[in-house]
Each structure stands twice: as structure tokens, then as C-alpha cells.
Amino acid sequence: MKIIFFIIIITSFTTQPLLSATDSLKPMQYNFSFNGIFGGIDKNSAQRGLQVFTEVCASCHGLNHLAYRNLEDIGYNKTQINSIAKQFLIDDIPDENGEIKKRNAIYSDKFVNPYPNEEAAKVSNNGAYPPDLTLIVKARKDGANYLRSLLLGYEDAPNGFDVGEGYYNKYMPGNVIAMPQPLYGEDVEYQDGTVPTLEQEVIDVVTFLTWTAMPELEKRKSSGIKVIIFLVIMTIFFFLSYRKIWKDVK
Description:
The chain is mainly α. It has a domain at 222-250. Helices cover 43% and strands 4% of the residues. It contains eight helices and four strands, in the order αααββαααββαα. It has helices spanning 2-22, 43-55, 78-85, 118-123, 136-139, 143-152, 198-213, 217-245, and strands at residues 89-91, 102-104, 167-168, 176-177. The longest helix is centred in the last third of the chain and has 29 residues, at 217-245. The radius of gyration is 25 Å and the shape is globular. Residues 1-21 have low confidence and may be disordered.
């Protein structure tokens, strides 16, 4: 019994620092424009978020489930969308010799992936595959708050904490993330004149990625409100009918 007790004591002392070192913080809560039953996507913020994604994030991450034409939903017209798309090259159809050449992306194309294949992506990122960001907000618990916290959560690692080839992030499970800090503030020059602080860039790109994950968000909320109003009206109608039918019954 003494030996077992001694082993338990030693184990508790050796594992406790390890557990505390790998604990990640819960995401910070933020009042985004799309929060709540009446919330919706701030299209100006989403457009700025697209600019952040295009100029910073698109070098590593893709939006494989989104087409450029979908940008009409956040306020762009076809000419503007073609202007955005042509910044990227895409494989054209094979010519008469079977060769595949590159061409500028257009309105009807899907967002161009930065890597030709998964292996090439891993080689360029220390063996870690950069996830597609189209549905990232839906793929993570408390997605918008988690993503905002993660982008703001880079810090110098505590003394004695080995991050290996990664980077310390207090909101990442295990506190080690393969992706270097992507945003620092003043990474872009916003076309609408908004000051590109780190906080602003993060809010904008999270708003944009919330829209890519849930483009039907506003329609779904609008439908839900209409259903609630209908149910309230019908409840009142049936209650009044009930009172009239049974008013003479004691």
C-alpha cells in the first residue's frame, strides 16, 4: 500500500504542470452584428473581410465551396466580382495539344485554391494542411467567437513551454498552433477608409467567414420571425374562438 500511495503522489506532481500548461482559454464573447434573432451580416464589414482574406489569408487558405458569383450577396456587382476574381489564376480547359494553361478567374469560377494539391500545401506549412475556411465558423464550437479569439490569441510562449516548430496561442487546444500569426494590424489599406487596426481586421474577416459558412443566415432568421408572428396570431385566434364557443358552458 505504501508503494502504491507513493506512486500516486509522484504521478500527481509530475502530470499537474503538464495539464495546466496545455489548457486553452475559452473564447472571448463579442457582440457581432449577426448575433441575436434580429442580427444580420454587416455587408460593409464582410466586404472589408473579403479584402483581408484576399490580401492575407488567400496565400494559404482556400474557399473551395464558394464561387465568386456568390459575392453578389454581400453587395458586389458582376463587374466588381470579375475584378476581384482576375487577381487569381486558374487552370483552363486543355487546348488542342492537351496542354493545360492558366487563365484569370472569372465571375462563374469557384474561389481559387492556393495549392495544386494537399501534399504541396503540407510541404509549404511545416507538414500541417491549412484547412479550407468556407465552413470554418460552423465547424468549430462557438465558431465566430473562437475564430476571433484565436486570431487575437498569439503570445510569446511561457518560460519552459516548448512549441516545437509551432507558435503559442492561448486559445488553441494545447496552446500550440502551426500557423504563424497572420494579422498584426495595418496589414491592408481598406478601400472605404476604415482604420485597419488588428481588432478591426479580425472582426471583418470573421464576419466575412461567417457569411461564407452561413450565406442563408438572414433569410433563415427572417423566416423564423415570420413563423413566430404567425404562431402568435394563430394562438390568439384559437384562444378567442375557444372563449366564444365555450362561453355559455358552465
